[in-house]
User: Fold these one by one.
Assistant:
Number 1:
Amino acid sequence: MRIKSNIAVSDSGFIFNPDTGESFTVNPTGALIINQLKEGRELKEIGNDIREKYNVQFVTFEKDFDDFIGLLRNYSLIENA
Amino acid sequence: MPDKKRKLTIAVSGLNAIDSPGPGVAVIRALREAESFDVRIIGLAYESLEPGIFMHDLVDKTYQIPYPSTGIETIFERIEYIHSIEKLDIIIPNFDAELYPLIRLEDKLKEMGIKMFLPTMEQFEERHKVNLNDFGKKYNIKVPKSIVIHEISSVYSLPSEFKYPVVVKGKYYDASVCHNIDQIKTQFNKITAKWGLPVIIQEFIHGTEFNVTGLGDGNGNTISAVPMRKQYITEKGKAWGGISISDKRILDLTDHFLSQTKWRGGFELELMKDKENDFYLLEINPRMPAWIYLSVGVGQNIPEALVRLALDEDVKPFTHYQVGKMFVRYAWDMIVDMEEFQAISTLGEL
């Protein structure tokens, strides 16, 4: 799974989909996840990094992380590799 | 020293830069920025309060013209008079309703030295809202199901494939989403009072609206295509803000439309993408849209290219435009002297 190659993500967390003209804003954690997906990292690796960095419980993290990835999919920002 | 650019006198209608704006002012801005010519702009106005009349930095002189419903001869006589003074090179009409008489006058005006770049009468007619079903079938383009009605009683016998809501549309303008038969009847009466018959009942496609403006050379080639998504929509459904996008499927659909119909002139396609990601063609506007200045902003000056095609020049297709450029419209109060309003109201010239 990866972010579509033409999706632009700024440092401030502004996302622009040039196919649809839709734009979104995400918080720094969201931007981190998206940028790491753009770099080709696996979801599992990204999840482990974030849990380590923010010291969050696994159950809480997994729910939020799945929700976020679901949103990315829903807005057609990701594609299967 | 740079070469002095040739100067063209171009008459432009659609100066009604109001809440549901005509494209004239945007077209003129584009012409003023043309690289291949300078312009003297002659405004053609129907009403004395069309804002473009008073924009003297854009419009050099304005003449009031008769409504298309007054007949071809009346329109021709007025153009003949304006031409006797201004020596027009080009006319760019920006209203659907004035295309019919002007297409019919195209040869006659050409003999006088006035050029236009308009769709043929056949192209103009077959893309009409009332013919959209046949158009879709003929050119293999998905369109919403629609039915044309001439009397209010027909709303009681709509085919069963029409599920609520439906869109009720006027022949030229106006569209409203209706959720029951009473709303259809109200809308039918409202539309017929303003635009006459017939009225079109169209399947409502749930989805996201996209628009594309462009220019066809009349031989099936795409000279320009700029797709846009509306970001801010007024109560009348008009774009008050929009952004250029890169969806290849929209560009392919535009190429298909142009290659199949051999469309001649500027146009706007109104598209809806449904939940299955299929594009439906809702409407074909046979002229440039009010947001045409975005085409200049992204690197494709469509009005300039249209003028060059009208002059029989060889115009190369644009190959690139900037994605992610936005337009944001605004309202602006001009201060106008009473004498100006008086002149356009009484003399029909300013």
Number 2:
Amino acid sequence: MVTFWTPGGGGDFCTGLDNIARDFESHHPGIAIAPTQCGTGEQEFHEVLLARIAAGNPPDAVLLWTSPAALAARGALLPLDALMQHARYAQAENWPPAVLASCRFAGQTYGLPVTAGSYGLWYNQAMFEHKGIPAGRDAFPKSWDELRRLSQEFTVWKGDTLQVAGFIPWHAVEDLPLWSALNGVQLYDAAQRKYTIDAEPNVAMMEYAVDWLNQEYKGDFARVVRSGNWEGYEVEGRQPAFVDQRQAMFVTYSWNMGLKIFAQSAFPWNIARLPVGPGGTRSVAGYWPNWLALPKASQRVEQAFAWLDYMSGVGVQAWFRNFPDLPANRQVPRDLLPTALVDSKGKAFAQDIMDFFRAQLDSATPMWDSPVQDFATDQLRRALEQIMYKVATPRTALVEAQKACQSALDKVLRARS
Amino acid sequence: MVATRARQARLGGMRRREARAGLLFVLPWLLSLLLFTIYPVLATLYLSFTDYNIVQPPRWLGLQNYRTMFTADPAFWPSVGNSAYYALLAVPLGLAGALGLALLLHIRAQGMGVYRTLIALPVLVPPVASTIVFIAMFDPDNGLINALLQTVGLPTMGWLTDPTWSKPALILLSLWGLGASALIFLAGLHEIPPALLDAAAIDGAGPWQRFRHVTLPLLTPVILFNLVMGVISSFHIFTQALVVGGTTGKPLESTLMFMVHIYRTAFRYFAMGYAAALAVVLFLAVLVVTLVIFQSAHVWVYYEGSRGSNRSHTETACRATIVA
């Protein structure tokens, strides 16, 4: 019986995975899937998983919320390339290259990015129309300068409180690789195994954000944070300001299209590609995956991979209907649409949005591909906070992050060699 | 003579049998101590000199982890500073608060059992749940705390969203659980002979003098106990800090406590060897602080009937009277 673990997940998610497993079993009579183990109770998932791998009795397959590159660099995962060649859905050419890159380390593939929520710039069309600004996707700003000018049209302060925000420049660490790529560079170069956090265009990118904050947001990020929830998800009981029509534009992920608070919003919205920075030449997208992988010492490799392959092409459709995480595999039918959006905004709109997000995956920039991914994310978050709260200049903060990340990366690579 | 020897031999045999039986009774505990405490402690010490990620065998690094800690880890000193700040404020505040609560609970009044139960109840609430409640209370816009401050005309704070106020907010959060210490103080208060307080009162000592010169000295062993436990637990603050600040101690690393740094190093960065080195340093720091407290105890802790103390209950009461 194939055992399958996830790092966590609530009741519906886990029940959904079990239902997919029963469906898989009906198509593969020789393979049985044990009930999904969602999380490892009070113990930390990685602690248990790594200990079980070391002891030689890991689960046969896992869902990961941590970059496979990081686990692969530590010898915790099996390479999948040979298995992928004979797969029905999981063949390498069926994945957007930049998304599959998040699973690659040292020339081998260690995971399948079963879902990859892609990024888009969401905007409130009603607010645009109210100000007489063209609200079509084609008319949306193509450069950071245009976006900044447009943002000012919407931003309203009442005393020290930000009542309405136009667009708040890059303040989420998960989006930073995307903004860096829009400015023509990267934060991490997987091919060269080098961090480039303090590259001049990245410093310029952060200086641009600080200047923007100074001009439009009183140079006080703390006040901005206090004034509302500017993220794309509920924070401490506060729903996103975008839903309350207090934010004209923001960057968020594709899964929001299927969530009721967005799908059933009282106002029309649309999504545009992200504008290009002064150093960039073309718009790119970002993504946030869930990965499937086989732990080292998995006992039933062939059977477990058959399960992962099925999940990549078929199971993920049921997953999408349960929670609208974007399937990354190209074999998934194009007419798979989020029900909540179809019901509230119509099939044509839902199809347009879905096509947009799937196309975004094809123009994605590589992300999540570092062997020290989580360490780097924390260092970048630290740098970003220091810059936003003006504790350090962009250059100082990025240089320090660069030093820490490269040092951690070198240490992991040295240990491997 | 022979009979005496025979009796001694019988007694010796019995003692050995008793000792064997005793050893057998404590054997499970001894084994678990060896397996689950001594071995992990020694393993942690060994791993602190290695590069280890659980899956691959440890690789000996010598003192490199310790060098990295003090010279190249950007989060080490901020987490040390945050933990020290927290300990320095949370422990005295907690002790004073718990003692105050215990004094209130010591009053003879109707329904005191209910109050004691209510004070102890927060200890039973899971830390994650209580922290989430406090996050809502500290919300800068809609939170209860700022609403109260506004009501009395005081300026509001950013609390957990503001790097200046996030640690004080965490310290206030820590006071939520002082019911446990208060109950220990209460037990200590019950142990104080009423005759001493009565004697001091008869000799003219007021409530403050009785508290200062009778109650407080006799409570010093309990204060020592609560102080040591408070220091240890304050260095170990983890759940609340993680729920509030995540793995980066937001905002601006202001809630990045040392335990959170250890946790993220081990389970987020998979650097078990380095995390072990951090744990060793934490252990040594707590050990040193605890030893200093114990060393200082002979100066300020009063043990009834101990050689170190030249005072007795009566003398203490007399001092109170003289002061009064």
Number 3:
Amino acid sequence: MSRKLKTWSVAGLALMSTVACGDFLSGDKLDSDPNRATTAQASQLFTAVQVNTYYIVNGHAARVLAMWVQQMAGTDRQYIGYDLYSVTEGLFGEFSAVYTGGGLADIRSIQAVATTSGNKTLLGITKIYEALVVGFAADMYGDIPYSEAAKPSIKTPKLDKQADVYAALQTLLDGAITDLSAGAGSVGALDLSFQGERTKWIAVARTLKARYYLHTAEVNTAAYANALTQAQQGIASPAGNWTEYHSTSSGEENIWWQFINRDRDSYTRPGKFLVDLMIQRNDPRVPEYFAKNDLGGYAGAAPGEGLDPNRMSNLGPVRLQPDYRQPIVTWSENKAIIAEAAYRTGNIALARTALDELRAWAGVPAIAASLSGSALLVQILQEKYIALFQNYEAYNDYKRTCYPNLTPSSSASASGIPARFTYPVAERTANPNIPLPGNQPKRNTNDPANATAPDGAACKGQK
Amino acid sequence: MSRIQRLFGVTLALLLLPVGVRAQSALTVSGRVTNEAGAPIAFASVYLTGMGLGAQTQSDGEYSLVVPSARATGQQVVLGARAIGFRLKTVTITLTGTALTQNFILESNPLRLGEVVVTGAGTQSTTERLGASVSSVKSEEILKSNEVNVVNALAAKAPGVNVTSSSGEPGASAFILIRGQKSIEGTSQPLFVVDGVPVDNSTIVTTFSTAGTTSPNRMMDLNPADIESVEILKGSAAAAIYGARAGAGVVLITTKRGRPNSVNWSLRSTYTDDRVNRDYPLQTMFGQGSRGVAASCLSENCRLTGASFGPKLAAGTKVYNHFMEMFETGHVSDNSISVSGGTDRSTFYASGGYMKNEGVIVGDNDAYRRVTSLVKGNLEVNDKLRVGATVNYSDSRGSFIQKGSNLSGLLLAALRTSPEFNNVQYKDSATGLHRAYRFPRPGATSGNLSRTYDNPFFIVNEMQNTSEVGRSFGNINVDYTPFPWLFVKYSLGGDYSSDARIEGLPPSNSSEPTGQIDRANYTIFQVDHNLIATASKEYNGWMNTSLTAGQNLNSRSYKQLQARGRGFIAPDLFQLSNTISSNLLPLDYESLVKVESYFGEAKLDLWNQLFFTGGVRNDASSTFGKSVRHNWFPKASAAWEFTRTMGISGGAGLLSYGKLRAAYGVTGREPNAYQVFSGYTVGTFGDGWTNGLNVSQSGNAGIFLSASKGQTDLKPERNAETEFGADFAFLDSRIDMGVTYYNSKSTDVILSLPVQPSTGFFNQVQNAAEITNKGLEVTLNLRPLATPNLEWNVGAMWAKNDNLVTSLNGADQFYLGGGFVSGIKQGFAHGIILDYDFARCRYKETANNVNGVDINAVCKTAGAPEGALYIDSDGFPLFDETQRVVGDPNPNWTGSLSSNIRLMKKLQFSALLDVRNGGDIWNGTKGALFNFGAHKDTEIRGQQRVFGKTYFPGPTVGPGKDKSVVIDQGTWFTNLGSGFVGPASQFVENGGFTRLREVSVALTLDGGWVKSSGFSSMDLRLAGRNLWLKTDYTGIDPESNLGGASASRGNEYFNNPQTRSVVFTVGLNR
């Protein structure tokens, strides 16, 4: 028996010493996370950047903005509140998405690889994605972190002035055009929009430059001339439209379809203002944009009105498809920029031509020869407002021009249609330069309130 | 059968072999053990000192002990008898002849002086030596609670220990919180240790904690009938021996064991009748529709508004109680059998249990069935070596119902339904397809269309949400005493469970209309090795010392293999292979954590009245950053039995006992696995409103930078706690009381501190926050009557904990997972309800601008008081878009009162009243039902009200003060009065309650036909659980939590409700 006892003691001591000498705390699944990759290829990050961009430009923010310009309306629960401008600083995750994984952090990684490997096609395209999403943040938030953003060495990036951000984006897009013009490198099928067709990307970069010139034009009318120059080299036909990739596969479906058809049926319906406007115009796009209601006709929802499913039209059968390629930057936007910028710079003939091209494409008759002055401008802006259905650029135009002269949806809101997003709570709490929501500016610096709408009437929604 | 189970099985078989060997012609010592009142004491242990022989009394108090003739040589030995709650009694007897009779009358020992208390990691002490407070819960108290989940059974049993069950459903998890929340992202659940080995008590949620289904906490795998005692190490001073795993306290469970020289049988059968304990206030005056216009379905597949703001229903319209129609009477049948006993050198305990719970929700799909077995064997190889093994096996099968914030959630669908819609007929008479109030006419083509909200009867009848768990845990242990002064204890424990889940929503459900199934398998495996050696020395009776050194190695792995399929091929087959293959989404994950620890403890007793303990543990965990791998957790305590100094002993006298104690200790909490690493991740991009977009698209692989930046020098959280206490007994120990004050400070609390998103990361974990908990715990026990025919005991407990988040290291506030409105904010208690409020006078805030109006200026001018509601010019309040604290779910205090009366030794009455004072709950259900016009309170629609007077009474200020307004759908209920639009503050309610948690009457029969049928006694018990509830809360029972056992407390959003029960128990013993 005593031998057994010794065996026990020895076994016990051996166990202790084995462990003490060996490295119990090292090994497989201890020295690294078995669930996450530690490296990523630029091509894989590029897919993420594209998908993340779709979420930024056609997710929650796009839906709320479409409600604020009354192209859509909130018809259920929280969306009624958003339509009544009940928005809080916790509302939009898009700000973070601009910078974090799939955003600027990964764009920077791709650009570093593309620069080293000389893949100027990939470099140029990611610059355009950067310009789109950073521009979105500048449009909505005004001053934003940019020059110091997504740099590992900088822990608290400072806010750049909105005007400086727009200026930097012009330089960035010029760089993209230079890179793409060099003809080096390729992306092929990794590019979900154009399969690496450089000329199409160059045209998109031009249109985007024109768009951003317009964004500064309310405080700097000289920008209209720049916008015109760029737009004239911009997207030359609808075949050059920059659209998202979507399919019927799970996780690849159009986000609007996901929202309305699958996940949040009843939360939003087309807006009464837009439906009425298009019916009144006898616009042939009505059956594309809207579905017939149970009564066989078309009707939109007034802002904040609860759902009346029998009477209210849903999104149309063309748009409400899982594989509908939601437009991001289009020929029609480009054409409308030409028309407006030409009008603003006194080239009425060009303005009329461009407007009529747009109308012909939409299937509505050419404008009357007598149409001129502010009535012509209103017509241009109206074409753009309709063409840019569901696109957040309609909201930027509204802020700049007060077209359409919308009646704010809620009597409770004395401050009109919101003119910017409140900084997200995560950024505010970590950044001492951002004031509490109540003390943040009501409008961005590029967007003073319009006293009047383009037709001269008092602007109802801007304060 | 896993490898470890097999290993246990073989070991056990070997250990049990010697049981059959019996001694030849011998001396039998027998007798009866009773209390002072003459009542028999069951499970008392009678033993011969120094001979390793003992026996256990039967339920009639009888014992019988056999001494082999070879060992009965006429010598004098000490025979002792002891039982929990009674003082040890010894007599000296002479071992001669073949039969001796020795009866014992034991004095009660309410303070449990001299009783051995396990104090963790293989160490033990006696009650009077403890310097840190340890709460004990006895087997009888656990059985009396009639809970099938041991965590629920601990409710109201110890001060400072709060238990909340997530709902009354079969298999619902229970949450235990000891002395307040100390962590933010880590678990607040204590470490559970069964028979010396840490075991898993995780609650794994298949899909979402705020939706999906309830899920059990894994301690449910233990049959409460197998528990002998529970010790709760509440504070860090008591729990420090478990180091970095003990930050939330430790619950030590000891299972029953056999006693030598006896054989005991016990059969226990319980039948329970469960009902939902509260109705829900719904309106039945107005029908489906909007703005007074009825909703009408003009065509097949029409979609109707979800609102019940239609016209007033015509007299005689049939309306339904959409709450109560979802419930029926539920049942629990719980049967346990156990047999235990042993010879002079070997003992065993074996039990089997079968529990079947059919819940209160209509249909058979809310059910939980558990089969348990426990086998334990011990063999004294010789006087120096004891070897033992224990194996628990359980097989649990649960079936659950979708709940919470979920288009396929039971009460979300049921309560929102308009009163005149008949939900019971959930299949359309023409097409046989799923019909629901917003989709009343399903056409033949609607098989894959959303119903907007499901019909609740479709939810309960057609969905499949199941869990099948096989679990085995146990240990092999060895005690070795090579020298009288040295004691070595070794245990090797294992805990393995495998949980196969299905969460399946068939086509036409509203969450994923083409059908969705999640299949998951969760495998948890823990191995624990614990070796200690204790050396002790006595110095002439005035001083005792002991020194313990130990090593602990622990390894825990978790593996999750989960996949989601969408798009059913056959409509009713819950298989991944029955979905369109391109729509599969894998969700697999695994983790491994290893901990290497060394610990030591020194004890010093002086003159049997001064007791000192000091100890330290060093933990190294794979979850700590490499540069900070080793962390120390010290402890020290002192106890002084001052009454002994005064010459008082034996528990007699006006002041019968008095002890002062002081203790300090540090515990910790490990970071989660892999928080030290950064990496790239795959997944989806989305905003929460939709399922989102996969990062890989069109066959192109995608990956993105993880939101969390790794923290390479992450340390464990530390919780340093000081406690002071005193224990007294008065009037010959008829009254005893204990008071404990504690003050704990948790530092290095891990927080995913947001980094500015503009840096490229959302957050990085940091040892950043500080939380304090200060509290007072009081117990008082009275034994006014103790006569042979009438015993009466009264017990009271009271506890208060003040929690404060003292620092978030510069960050402002965070939301907690598992809820909608729970967060933390510097300067407030943990888990506060963080949302919005109406604009009010807030003089303490420097800037109080809402919508461009300086509210405080208006208030000052009007001389309005703090908190006055600002009324805008339209007569309605104004939404204040600054997030703030609008409620605190932490109770002000908790208490309980229990009483026990025993008549004629046979009849026992007992009751337990449980009080929670304060503790806010966000009544999200009410907010949502306001929006839909389904809540009873929305019957006032169309009526005139004045804010501050006839609505939201209280002081008001502002341009619209005293203006009469129409409270209507558009003006209020879907506007600022809606839970979706308006501020949450208006739906925060006091969740305090007083409830009769337990009441019972029990009868023990031990004569006549019971004895003649071969039993020693029979127990009959009729009990009530939760029969009476008083609360101001207007929803379901406030003992409920949306996120189950998550850190978010006080969230109620279409939770499944609680139950009350009537329980009948029959127990047979011999």
